[in-house]
Amino acid sequence: MLIYRSPQRRKATELAQRLERPIRLTTGLILFAFATSHLINHAFGIRSVNTMQATSAVLLAPWQTNAGLIVLYTAFLVHGLLGFYALYRRRHLRMPANEAWQLALGLTIPFLLLSHPIGIRLGEFQYSHELGYAPILNKFWIVSPDFALPRNCSCCWSFGFTAASA
User: Fold this and answer.
1) Using one digit for the tens of pLDDT, what is the confidence trace for 18-30?
2) 24-64 pLDDT per residue, tens
3) Long-range contacts of 23-32 (CB under 8 A, 24+ apart)
4) What is the residue range of 67's domain?
5) Which among 22, 48, 68, 163 is most buried, taking Cβ atoms within 10 Å?
């Protein structure tokens, strides 16, 4: 049975198919730029908390504006929806191992990382000001180190480190 599609609908479908890949690439690059600047900022924490705080004023400033947050959250949502749409379009789930890994990581990573931005945004909303790095590091290392940074893992046991010895 042949389904009739109007010329306007056919043109809209062709346009959407042509734009899908550039939009996925653009949103992926936006997310990559944010993750890179965020992790580079954390790397400056090796020097000191003050250095990390000063660097965040440069690296993370664009993402802290309303426009930056809208771009970031929109890119996250659109990139995720395009990923689900690509999965929906597949006729079967037989795929090479590299595609299976990409799919598994693409579906898992947002759920693993989502608690971080939600916790930060809820903390800022609850206390109505930006927390900064010092209180967060104090919470992770002093107040509740076993919850935030579990140290009783097999890699630590091999070096003789435990929560009691730390």
Assistant:
1) 889 999 999 999 9
2) 999 999 999 999 999 999 999 889 888 998 998 899 999 98
3) 23/78, 23/82, 24/79, 24/82, 24/83, 26/75, 27/74, 27/75, 27/76, 27/78, 27/79, 27/82, 28/79, 30/71, 30/72, 30/75, 31/72, 31/75, 31/76, 31/79
4) 1-89
5) 68
